[in-house]
Design goal:
The protein contains 16 helices and three strands. It is mainly alpha-helical. Strands 2-1-3 form a three-stranded antiparallel sheet. The radius of gyration is 24 Å and the shape is globular. The two termini are 34 Å apart.
Length: 433
């Protein structure tokens, strides 16, 4: 680890990118402590500590509990990304056409995602302010009224889009995927505070249960370490499909392979599922949807992670998004087309449609294993909260742990890639001399 960091900082380009990313993190942390004008943030700390809202608060580094200008985080933009990606699947012909236009089409889709994110963010911010003010009963909004709510919604929406812009700057000039890195920074920022809080809870007020609480705390730390090891192993695991080329002599040993990760979707299904389940729960909670019982209560429970129905629905979302995003990340049609153009083929599989079908079946099988792995890691804390009353929204719970470890691995790979590029560049320059 020390050697890796030493080699990374030896490169001026990588060093500058790391420092730039850390600077953006500092801006993000500063903004998460700036409260929205006209709001009594102390009124919502309890409301923002449980369920999906607690998870979103963790993703934002505590910004929601402080009701800061970054209270919404990047959740509206992620929700917009989900919608746009779904609409590309022959639902909106224009979006499908843009998806096939390369870089130009990608820019158009990004623009559409930005506009959709602004609309979703504004609606969510308005509902957030109105609902929290009603639920807190402690006068969250100092001067409630339409102008105040609209002003707060505009401020929160602007904060979300500013975070998206910061994420783009990290992607271009820093290290890693910008949006994922901001979520990573928010989770990591909450870890010391939450561990200190649990340390006080388990030890300071332990009384006669000190030994039992120490064992529980040690067991919790051990489980987290084991989960980290499992996540690292699963995120690095891959299936290598051999590739032959028609120009090679028959019977020659192949050197090329097509790597397919067991969890090719990464942490995206977890982020997507959390975003999808958070908005309906927030809206229904604000308007006391389900308080009258009957079918409304059933619907409310479906979007509540603290209920069995909500846990099941969350699991279904994880599985569906795992399959969906795996096929988005590794498009079998494009891979088969590229192999055919390059004169490559998979042994015992015909080029073209047969290769596409083979890759689709293989990706679906891997996605099944990846979905099982994601589900177990993400749902384990929820099960723990049901059985042993363990908080499910701690900073290093299953969902947060997947994001932190997944983003860390991808960032390390990107740094390694830049280091390798630097070595090749230096070699070519010496060769020219």
């Amino acid at each position: 680890m020390f050697t890796f960091l030493k080699n990374a900082f030896a490169s001026k380009d990588i060093r500058n990118r790391i420092f730039f990313t850390l600077f953006i993190f500092a801006v993000f942390r500063l903004g998460s402590h700036i409260p929205v004008p006209g709001v009594n943030a102390a009124a919502i700390k309890t409301l923002a500590s449980g369920g999906v809202l607690g998870l979103l608060n963790t993703f934002g580094g505590g910004a929601l509990a402080r009701y800061s200008i970054f209270a919404l985080g990047v959740s509206p933009y992620i929700t917009a990304s989900i919608i746009i990606q779904l609409l590309q699947m022959d639902i909106v012909p224009k979006f499908t056409e843009w998806a096939k236009q390369g870089e130009v089409g990608r820019r158009k889709l990004n623009q559409a995602t930005t506009y959709a994110g602004i609309l979703i963010g504004f609606a969510q911010a308005y509902g957030l302010s109105l609902g929290f003010n009603q639920l807190s009963r402690l006068n969250l909004i100092k001067n409630p009224g339409m102008p105040t709510y609209l002003t707060i919604a505009l401020v929160l929406t602007a904060g979300t889009m500013f975070l998206v812009w910061l994420g783009e700057q990290i992607t271009r000039n820093g290290i890693g995927n910008g949006v994922s890195m901001l979520i990573f920074a928010g989770i990591v920022a909450e870890v010391p505070k939450q561990f200190y809080s649990y340390f006080q809870t388990y030890l300071t007020n332990a009384g006669t249960k000190l030994t039992r609480n120490l064992l529980l705390l040690a067991l919790l730390i051990l489980v987290i370490v084991i989960l980290i090891i499992i996540v690292v192993l699963m995120e690095r695991a891959q299936l290598r499909i051999p590739i032959h080329h028609s120009k090679k002599a028959s019977g020659a040993k192949h050197t090329a392979h097509l790597p397919l990760k067991i969890n090719s979707a990464g942490v995206i299904p977890v982020i997507f599922a959390t975003s999808v389940i958070s908005t309906p729960q927030t809206i229904m909670g604000f308007f006391k949807f389900g308080s009258e019982g009957g079918w409304k209560q059933v619907v409310a429970n479906i979007f509540n992670l603290q209920h069995l129905y909500g846990a099941i629905f969350y699991t279904i979302l994880l599985i569906l998004f795992s399959y969906f995003y795996s096929l988005v990340q590794v498009n079998p049609e494009k891979v088969a087309e590229n192999l055919q153009k390059q004169g490559g083929y998979i042994p015992s599989v015909r080029p073209g449609k047969d290769t596409e079908n083979f890759l689709t079946r293989t990706i679906n099988r891997l996605s099944g294993l990846g979905a099982l792995y994601l589900t177990l890691i993400a749902v384990l804390p929820i099960i723990g909260s049901f059985l042993w009353k363990i908080p499910s929204n701690i900073a290093l719970s299953g969902t947060s742990l997947l994001i932190v470890v997944g983003v860390a691995i991808e960032t390390a790979k990107q740094i390694e890639g830049r280091m390798a590029k630097r070595r090749y560049t230096g070699f070519l320059q010496l060769d020219k001399q």
